[in-house]
Write a structure and sequence with these properties.
- This protein has 115 residues and is an all-alpha fold.
- The chain starts with 6 loop residues before the first helix and ends in an 18-residue tail after the last helix.
- The relative contact order is 0.12.
- The protein is built from 5 helices and no strands.
Length: 115
């Protein structure tokens, strides 16, 4: 996978995965749109002064979008259950992705400072 260097490239990936999920998942478009709107707002206001407040929220949106697209393929979850899981588990997404147990305190890193 080549590095993503533009916001539209990054977001197109999530939109394509949602589109591939089928008609029963189209109601998740509203959630995706809300996350995209929030991400757009945050990236527009990020600056040297706001970085430490804004970046953790950007990481949170990234975690939510990745969780959504990972779970969307499982037919066992309704859309409501899927969103509930995303909204509760996104805070620990990067920690688990890096192989940490939920009880383990990770090393100090920006990647674990999710809001």
């Amino acid at each position: 996978m080549r590095p993503l260097t533009a916001q539209n490239e990054y977001l197109e990936n999530f939109q394509q995965l949602l589109d591939q999920a089928g008609d029963e998942r189209t109601s998740l478009q509203e959630y995706l749109n809300g996350q995209i709107d929030r991400l757009t707002h945050l990236t527009q206001k990020i600056s040297q002064e706001t970085f430490w407040q804004v970046f953790p929220e950007i990481l949170g949106i990234d975690a939510k979008l990745n969780l959504l697209t990972e779970l969307i393929v499982f037919d066992d979850f309704t859309n409501e259950e899927l969103l509930r899981i995303v909204e509760t588990d996104y805070l620990t997404y990067f920690k688990e992705l890096c192989g940490y147990d939920l009880k383990t305190n990770p090393k100090p890193s920006m990647i674990f400072q999710v809001l």
